TrEMBL record:
Family: Belongs to the Lgt family.
Keyword vocabulary terms for this entry: Cell membrane, Glycosyltransferase, Lipoprotein, Membrane, Transferase, Transmembrane, Transmembrane helix
Primary subcellular site in the record, as a coarse category: membrane
Enzyme class: transferase
Listed name of the protein: Phosphatidylglycerol--prolipoprotein diacylglyceryl transferase
Function: Catalyzes the transfer of the diacylglyceryl group from phosphatidylglycerol to the sulfhydryl group of the N-terminal cysteine of a prolipoprotein, the first step in the formation of mature lipoproteins.
Membrane-protein topology: Multi-pass membrane protein
Pathway(s) this gene product operates in, as recorded in its UniProt entry: Protein modification; lipoprotein biosynthesis (diacylglyceryl transfer)
Listed EC numbers: 2.5.1.145
HAMAP family, sorted: Lgt (MF_01147)
NCBIfam families linked: lgt
Amino acid sequence: MFGLRLDPIAFSLGSISVHWYGIILGTAALVGLLLAVQEGKRFGLSPDFFMDLLLFGVPSAIIGARIYFVAFQWNEYKNHLVDVFKIWNGGIAIYGALIGAFTCGIIYFRNKGYSFWRIADICAPSLIAGQMIGRWGNFVNQEAYGGEASENFLRHTLHLPNWIVNQMNVEGVFHHPTFLYESLWNLLGLVIFLVLRRRPFLRAGELLFAYFIWYSLGRFYVEGLRTDSLAFLGADWAASFMNALWSPLKAAGFTQGYLDPAYGNIRISQLLAVLLILASIAMIIIRRRTGAASERYLDPIINFKTGLPAGAEEKKGSSVTSDEATVEHSGRESVDRTDDSSIKE
């Protein structure tokens, strides 16, 4: 054991060990929920709407993330199937999590009668906030780090505290804290999204596309630093193109993390990042030109099943209940007056 590595187990309850990884992911989900609930209130959406979404969405995201990762690492799991379920040891892919979460979201939103784009916009800051916090789970597990970096670079160039530097010491070699790079990138993105969603020019769906663009841009460059990237063997021209796109970071003095040529020459996450950026930009342009993005982010959210604004049904129900209570109360007063008159007579 080198350095002062953090214990991945937070505490134990008898034979049950509670890992920091799970605690951090739980915290990420909770923060994301609170952000969505707070914004949802502005549009009349109840907290229960987002709590139910979380109950369905988190398991879907975890399952999708694990399936995605295992699918690209099948040779390592096919003879140890039990290890497929040990997610507390790490090994989940964020793009798989997004696939799982968005599949669940599409079904859930449609069932509730709401536009996917409108609710996804509200959830976009929650997604990036969750990823910002969740990356610290990789830090505790000492995984998803970058290539070799000097201790001097970490301590005196980045001015990182000892507890981060020590954790980046893996078997005697210091590595780039890619978890930190991505976490800080997401923090900046969160601030931008919170400001952007108050701008009147923002159309429905565009905050979600902004999330895809921002996250994918940062992920492309951070992924190039990592040494554990999922990859495949592709055309040499495509690999050269990816390297050319990454060259600005190389010019800044960074070195790409090692990628075994026999394993692959194109990092899957980098390829997906480029495709998501291009697709998101195209969708923004197409939806605006075709009129599909006529709704604005700040417009009321309409339930297409009832034709009413979000929350109107609850208010209507409360109004009916209040009216019934008033009628009942008035009826009782009339009866009381009648009884009083009979007594007096």
